[in-house]
Amino acid sequence: MAFEGLGERLQATMDRIKGKGKVTEADIKVMMREVRLALLEADVNFKVVKSFVNDVKERALGQDVMTSLTPGQQVIKIVRDELTALMGGENSRINLSNKPPTVIMMVGLQGAGKTTTSGKLALHLRKKHNKKPLLVAGDIYRPAAIDQLQTVGKQIDIPVFDMGDKVSPQEIVTNALQHARDEHLDTVIIDTAGRLHIDETLMNELKEVKGIAKPDEIMLVVDAMTGQDAVNVAESFNDLLDITGVTLTKLDGDTRGGAALSIRSVTEKPIKFAGMSEKVDGLEPFHPDRMAQRILGMGDVLSIIEKAQENVVLEDQKALQKKIKDQSFTLEDFLSQMDQVKTLGPLDELIKMMPGANKIKGLDKMKMSGKEIDHVQAIIRSMTMEERENPEKLNASRKKRIAAGSGRSLQEINRLLKQFTEMKKMMKQMTGGKGKKKNPFGGM
Ligand code: GDP
């Protein structure tokens, strides 16, 4: 996973200041020096680092931190907020036109992941936005790009428009748009040609395609693994084509993360998606706030919940979100969530998103078995509905009954109850429930 080194260093710095009852100017100076080094080491653009450090310092030395009851935690909150702002603040959604077809033009260097991302995006738009996409094979130069797009299209059952590699991309796009209208396909995703380096011929061609396609979205696909280069590429494409959004691919690799942290402030264009695997469902909307929390080891509970919710109908989703917000999430809800989790695949991937998970040594080697989930479910199933709703009612004799009923030990039952209480606490903090102001990271 990306950001591991950065996360570790930032967290070590934060841990030192976290519990401090008094934070001096000298403390902040020392901390900011470490934060600066951590960011530079993660390959964040030096100008970006400079202004980031200045912003945090200015706020950290401000009145409300020094006079607050938990200054150490206030400082951490500032770092989190500024990291979030650096990556763009809110999640920026893809531009969809209300006059179909929406046209999305995918651009980027060869190997960045354009073709793969085109397929992923088509699937995402069909699943999440109920769209009927058409994929357009506009890369006539890279050998096999057309076949690759056809293969992806077949895999996800989305039509692919191609005219071979003897026709100009301009002509292909003109025909593709007509085809989309004829077939009532409301979203056109154009996979364009890339080069190994930016050159004039390519840019002129892309500009012409842009002129014909009049895209609602020009999505630049950049490979996060290329670090500073990714930022330079983004800058050039933006200057020449005025892009509207960025997808960072290969964030599942062990990139140091500098690109994710610099692109937004260098180009002023939002990162809209992150590629998290080679697979066709490996595209996630990019949430700066969640990413900042992940980097700082505060976990990404919302993404876990969303992942778990992908197959659930919208109504259930809303109900669940409301429960989390109102803090009325019960063991009964937990039970049905676990059924969802079981269908999700590798649990260790999910666990890595949990707060503090990166501090657990050997987690990489650990594979949580479905068996453990079965045990937890057996325990909850042995409870009465009333107990599931009000676990505080579980006294010693009730626990004994549940242990006998589920065939699990008392320790396991106590562990589950403790975990559940902590999870609720976490949800409360993440959703800005009560107590957030007073102590945003209490219990961490
Ligand atoms: P294009 O030349 O820009 O069209 O690049 P491709 O779509 O062919 O992708 C280049 C390589 O990167 C392929 O091997 C993809 O499987 C891989 N790839 C693309 N996106 C991701 C991603 O998010 N994660 C990982 N691990 N690999 C990716």
UniProtKB/TrEMBL annotation:
Biological process per Gene Ontology, one example term: SRP-dependent cotranslational protein targeting to membrane
What residue stretches are annotated with the SRP54-type proteins GTP-binding domain? 270-283
Chief location bin: cytoplasm
Which controlled-vocabulary keywords does the entry list?
Cytoplasm, GTP-binding, Hydrolase, Nucleotide-binding, Ribonucleoprotein, RNA-binding, Signal recognition particle
Per the UniProt record, which EC number(s) apply here? 3.6.5.4
Q: Provide any one GO MF term from the record.
A: GTPase activity
Where is GTP annotated to bind? 108-115, 191-195, 249-252
Q: Which reaction does it catalyse?
A: GTP + H2O = GDP + phosphate + H(+)
- State if Transport is listed as a keyword: no
| Intracellular or extracellular location(s) | Cytoplasm
In terms of CDD domains, this protein maps to:
SRP_G
| Family matches, as SUPFAM superfamilies | P-loop containing nucleoside triphosphate hydrolases, Signal peptide-binding domain
Gene Ontology cellular-component annotations: signal recognition particle
Q: Domain comment, in the record's words?
A: Composed of three domains: the N-terminal N domain, which is responsible for interactions with the ribosome, the central G domain, which binds GTP, and the C-terminal M domain, which binds the RNA and the signal sequence of the RNC.
Q: What is this protein called?
A: Signal recognition particle protein
